[in-house]
Design brief:
Elements lengths: L4 E7 L4 H17 L5 E7 L11 E2 H9 L3 H17 L11 E2 L3 H11 L4 H14 L7 H11 L3 H7 L3 H16 L7 E4 L3 E4 L4 H16 L1
Parallel strand pairs: 1-2
Antiparallel strand pairs: 1-5, 3-4, 5-6
Helix pairs in contact: 1-9, 4-5, 4-8, 5-6, 6-7
Length: 217
Amino acid sequence: MNNKIKLDIISDVVCPWCIIGYRRLEQAISEMGIQDQVEIVWQPFELNPDMPQEGEDILDHVKRKYGSSPEDWKRSQSNMANLGEEVEFTFNFFEGKRIVNTREAHILLDYAKEFGKQTELKMRLFESYFSEGKDVSDRQILAEVVLKTGLNVDDAIAKLDQVDAREKTLRQESFWRNADITSVPTIVFNRSSTLNGAQSVDVYKKVLADLLEQKEL
């Protein structure tokens, strides 16, 4: 019987707070020494589900969506880069960077779950987009990431043209939206309690410790 704490992490691969939050969660789990007592499943969420295939310039995007100026964006990215350093993750923000469609990345993450490679693929997608500045909507880039993860590239990319695989991802996204998940990262613990946003290491430790204590009752 699987008696692990199940963590559903709802996130998008172009969400900087998602990698910050995960790295803090990972640190909490490591410091508590409970790696074998936790099961992580990455769940899909598209920040921009209607993003066209060509994507959108990041400065145009933040102005349109958030009303942010270029100066606002630069301050925000400088802060994010500093937070990245704290969790040993490199953010490489630059003018000309594009916000891209992430649906196919989520389809591949569901495929990777079958082989126990979901977290590894997720990390490589974060690195590809944020650290290396690559377009994770481009199938050639996705194929490169899949290859680095040790998965079968032909089988994985073939999934992207399968109607049932695309519909499955859309159903999963709808499930979480219908569960009132409106922002990411969101972590659902054992399908019962929820934490929104990138919390501190200490907050994650407290929640995990409480769940471990409940298991022992």
